[in-house]
TrEMBL record:
The lineage of its organism: Bacteria, Pseudomonadati, Pseudomonadota, Alphaproteobacteria, Hyphomicrobiales. It comes from the Bacteria. The keyword Cell inner membrane does not apply. Keywords: Membrane, Transmembrane, Transmembrane helix. Residues 14-432 form the DUF112 domain. The chain crosses the membrane at residues 15-43, 55-76, 103-125, 132-153, 159-178, 251-274, 348-371, 383-400, 458-480. The keyword Thylakoid does not apply. This is Tripartite tricarboxylate transporter permease. InterPro entries: DUF112_TM (IPR002823). It comes from Acuticoccus mangrovi.
Length: 497
């Protein structure tokens, strides 16, 4: 761990961390552009980089992208990222009252505190969890992937059915190529370019960047209102005593929610905000420009990043869409996500932990020093911005294998992503289904081979059994609650008669 921090302060890693965090803040502050889009676009640039430096750059973009969303949420009532939705409820009314500097200062400080707390959990929990995961076999990994997919589908925004449809579609698009067990081609439809399957990078760029470009083009004429930032941000040491308990509680909630596959920073912020409102002596002030609401939302959404990184580097399970892209980055650099990462490439595993702390430090310094100038970037002409992003998308997809087929794949998945969102099918289960399907298939077949084709061997493995029943409970819980709700409604109707 100490070696990772020493390596991080070397000139090149520190430069990559600063560039990544600054880029993330800038992109996150522009409505419509997200951290996942930035990371997907940056992946091609990391091909020739050292794996540790590449992850340092991407972690910086991740932290900066989530934190940068608070600027647009405060000044425009437009969350720069989905994680900043709850921030708009109180930060924007504060800005409208002329307290924009105060709202920005509280949001930045809360984001930094949430990052510090979740980094503590990340640094303490990751190594022992990785050692535990080394005892897992094929059944454990298969049921763990199953649990992640089911939880993501059921807990993502929208209905359970649409979440499952998205996950199944993602798994279906991962099937073309060579069957890993028998070596036969499948679902290539006679296209030689599909022999190796659909590459992860064009799929990610298309699903997130190109689909967002399509939405931006359709709303290109929408004008953004202007709010003056003032001279800077206003926050002091007295706020530690005033908002400390709320921030600590929200940071723990955010880290815990981040640990759960498929929930994400926006749900972490919602849960922390609701909790802060319930325990407050002035709940009626929430949503009218109340400072504790800003602190709760921003602390939790940044803390969820550290929580989500724990299952990513210990078990190879992405907690959200952005973590799925980070797993793609590890795979592109020929690294195996999961517990073996600590054994075979400890400099990368501990480098992620060190980079997360460093990114939070760079974020708070950069935001406090330059937030009034960053805010002006929100008003850049959108036609020029969209054109430049599309150009980078095409170049990034083509540079993967120097073939135009990947560009067509990117454009196709851009259209697919756009229509899925129009149909209210969440993109999270879709992308994570695409990423995890090969792992699930490989582990399931290995498990069946090791048990001579007996699937009931699963129930002789304690961890696998727990993961399986958690998956089934998560899948059936919405139906149980709906049935109980209908029964209560029927009983109330009978009592009135």
């Amino acid at each position: 761990m100490l070696d990772a921090y020493v390596a991080l302060i070397a000139p090149w890693p520190l430069l990559y961390l600063a560039i990544g965090t600054a880029l993330g803040i800038v992109i996150g502050s522009i409505p419509g552009l997200t951290a996942s889009m930035l990371i997907a676009l940056t992946l091609p640039l990391t091909f020739q980089m050292d794996a540790t430096n590449a992850m340092t750059l991407l972690i910086g973009e991740y932290v900066g992208g989530i934190s940068g969303g608070l600027i647009a949420a405060t000044l425009l009532r437009m969350p720069g990222t989905p994680a900043s939705i709850m921030t708009t409820f109180d930060a924007f009314p504060m800005a409208q009252r002329g307290e924009g500097e105060r709202a920005l200062g509280l949001a930045v400080a809360a984001s930094f505190f949430g990052g510090l707390v979740s980094w503590g959990f990340l640094a303490v929990l990751s190594p022992p969890l990785a050692r535990l995961a080394l005892t897992f076999g094929p059944w454990e990994y298969f049921t763990l992937v199953l649990m992640a997919l089911v939880m993501l589908a059921s807990l993502s925004q929208g209905s359970l059915l649409k979440g499952l449809i998205g996950a199944c579609l993602g798994m279906l698009f991962a099937m073309p190529g060579i069957d890993p067990s028998i070596g036969q081609l499948r679902l290539t439809f006679g296209f030689n370019d599909m022999t190796g399957g659909l590459n992860l990078l064009p799929v990610l760029i298309g699903t997130f960047a190109v689909s967002q470009i399509i939405k931006d083009v359709l709303t290109i004429d929408v004008a953004l209102p202007r709010v003056d930032v003032g001279r800077g941000v206003k926050v002091g040491l007295g706020d530690v005593r005033r908002h400390g308990p709320n921030a600590l509680r929200s940071a723990v909630i955010g880290t815990w929610v981040g640990l759960l596959p498929g929930i994400g920073a926006n749900i972490a912020a919602m849960l922390a905000y609701a909790t802060a409102r319930q325990v407050s002596r002035e709940p009626e002030k929430f949503g009218t420009g109340h400072e504790p609401g800003v602190v709760a939302a921003e602390t939790a959404n940044n803390a969820s990043i550290g929580g989500a990184l724990i299952p990513l580097i210990t078990m190879g399970i992405p907690g959200s869409v952005t973590e799925a892209i980070l797993i793609g980055a590890l795979i592109i650099h020929n690294l195996q996500p999961g517990p073996l990462l600590f054994a075979t490439n400890p400099e990368v595993a501990y480098g992620v932990i060190a980079s997360y702390l460093g990114a939070n430090l760079v974020m708070v310094v950069f935001m406090l020093a330059s937030i009034r100038w960053i805010a002006r970037l929100m008003y850049l002409p959108r036609p020029y911005l969209v054109s430049a992003i599309l150009m980078f998308c095409v170049v990034g997809a083509f540079a993967l294998n120097n073939r135009f087929f990947d560009v067509w794949v990117m454009l196709a998945f851009g259209a697919i992503g756009y229509f899925l969102e129009r149909a209210k099918v969440p993109l999270g289960p879709f992308v994570i289904g695409f990423v995890l399907a090969p792992i699930a298939e490989e582990q399931f077949r290995a498990a069946l081979m090791s048990s001579a084709g007996d699937p009931f061997t699963l129930f002789t493995r304690p961890f696998a059994t727990v993961f399986f029943f958690v998956s089934m409970a998560t899948l059936s819980w919405p139906f149980i609650t709906e049935r109980l709700r209908r029964r209560r409604a029927t009983s109330h109707g009978a009592d009135r008669r």
